[in-house]
Write a structure and sequence with these properties.
9 strands, PH-domain like, three-stranded antiparallel β-sheet, binds zinc ion, alpha+beta
Amino acid sequence: MSSPETVQTFTASRWTQGNRIFPTKISVSPVQVIKTKRSWFSSDEESINIRHISSVRIKTGILWSDIWIESSGGTNQIYSHGHTKRDAQRIKQIVEDHQRTFKEGAFSDTAATRKCPHCAETIKADARVCRFCNREV
Ligand SMILES: [Zn+2]
């Protein structure tokens, strides 16, 4: 679906408190979510690895949405406000998509395997014919 380099960035509205001059940016990549908050002299960055995200919550007000990205264990969380409802939902959706992709990848990595007795290549535990040497196993 998306290449590993894909990073999507969402910027909070400048019309919301604390975002007038340097609006908060939320960047979502397949690996992590980064919140970047600039100030006059520095740039503050918080990040959570996609694998460690336990939930993404959205609270939608009259005009703007707040978003919480929580890590498992609750050791850190990213909070940002002043996003449009559409952006907030998009952030949640992308994070959940990346998590699904990651989990599917993790499962296929740890799928049961064994060695082919003929050629010693690694094949699936349920395989009847080795995909390397085409012999019955
Ligand atoms: Zn084989």
